Amino acid sequence: MVIDNFFPELATAILALVLTGIVLIACVMIGGRWVRRLARHELGPTKHTMHVENQRLRKALRPILPEGQSGETTVAKRGGDETVADG
Prior knowledge:
Blueprint lengths: L1 H5 L1 H33 L6 H15 L26
């Protein structure tokens, strides 16, 4: 190479930069593939987390849930003359 004859340190530095760039690009590509593979897995919530969320939801809905046997027609406690659905 012509550059090698005049500036051997420069040629070495350029080669080191090119190799470093290739290694970084390879790492990013492999990391992206790994992240996509992780994202494809459907990891559901743990039982403990789901249990806590269910308890919190039940506690929040307790004031407006109807009382009585299931299967009965009940009216939910509402603050005013709200309609459930218009139509």
